Amino acid sequence: MTRLALLQMTSGVDPAANARLVTDAIAEAAAGGATMLFTPEMTGLVDRDRARAAAVLRSEADDLVLAAARDAAATHGIWLHLGSLALKLPDGKLANRGFVIDAAGAIRARYDKLHLFDVDLPTGESWRESASYTAGEGAVVVDTPLGTLGLSICYDLRFAALYAALSAGGATILSIPAAFTQPTGAAHWHLLQRARAVESAAFVVAAAQTGTHEDGRATYGHSLVVDPWGEVLLDMGTDPGVGFAEIDLARVADVRARVPVLDHRRAIPDVARA
User: Fold this and answer.
1) Of residues 186, 187, 213, the one with CA closest to residue 42
2) Residue 40: enclosing H or E segment and its boundaries?
3) Which of 3, 59, 61, 65 has the greatest number of C-beta atoms within 10 Å?
4) Catalytic annotation present for 88
């Protein structure tokens, strides 16, 4: 069995305060025996006020949350998936970028969110990520002590083709950090996370934002660990904090032997209208 940890947090508008939460969580995860810690989407900043956010957002090279997380990972000797940060790009737009950081503090992988959340919800909430963010251009897997990790972020969860590509690329564990709204979370969060695990016969680790944030938005919480058979191993509810789960890495091979979905996948031809 291998132990992992998730940070469920209510990120605010001050990156320095969020960095302290992350470094404290890294220390707690390492002390608790975790091999790797996973944090949510927008770990470094949650702020809908674009002018206020613009004053504190930085490039990857200058981001204080990334720097603090790398230092803490090296200090405590633990791997980290920093779910995502909002980072300035040279063209003035932003990247929603996740990082896999090893136990020496080195960046092993980067992933920019592919699918941007441009929706109008029945509650009246309206989101236009594409107004500020540039979408990523490719899928990413990386070898970790937990196995080959496939990277994604939040709204990506709704696009099964991405996870088919990740599992075809060797992923045995899928990370889906998120800041789900409460209405969409209540309707679809558990359903989709379990579906992604079952269709890929892979573990899913989904660290989430939770509660009411300083900028007024509300997120769903319920950080999850799901096994390849769709069993929920951890559901953190709505309280912020660090949670732990034990996973059996041999479980992937066992499930894939029972139902060899990856072997049975076929390319889908163009749809014919009868």
Assistant:
1) 213
2) none
3) 65
4) no
The closest alpha carbon to 59, from 24, 16, 91, 31, belongs to 91
Q: Is 231 a catalytic residue?
A: no
Catalytic residue among 28, 41, 129, 214: 41
Contacts of 158 (CB under 8 A, 6+ apart): 115, 188, 192
Backbone angles phi, psi at 3, to 5 degrees: -100, 135
pLDDT tens-digit map of 213-248: 999 999 999 999 999 999 999 999 999 999 999 999
| 3-state SS, residue 132 | coil
Which is catalytic among the residues 129, 154, 231, 246? 154
Q: What is the pTM of this model?
A: 0.95
The full length of the chain comes to 274
Compute CA distances 215 → 12, 25, 45, 63, 219, whole Å: 7, 23, 10, 21, 11
- Return the biggest CA–CA distance within the chain: 63
User: At which residue do the structure tokens 């950090």 appear?
Assistant: 177
Tell me which residue of 63, 103, 105 sits closest to 84, measured CA to CA.
63
Catalytic entry in 28, 93, 113, 199: 113
3-state secondary structure of 260: coil
* Residue 197: how many other CB atoms lie within 10 Å: 28
**7-44 per-position pLDDT tens digit:** 999 999 999 999 999 999 999 999 999 999 999 999 99
Token pair 């709505």 in the structure block, residue: 238
Is 154 one of the catalytic residues? yes
204 token code pair: 């899913």
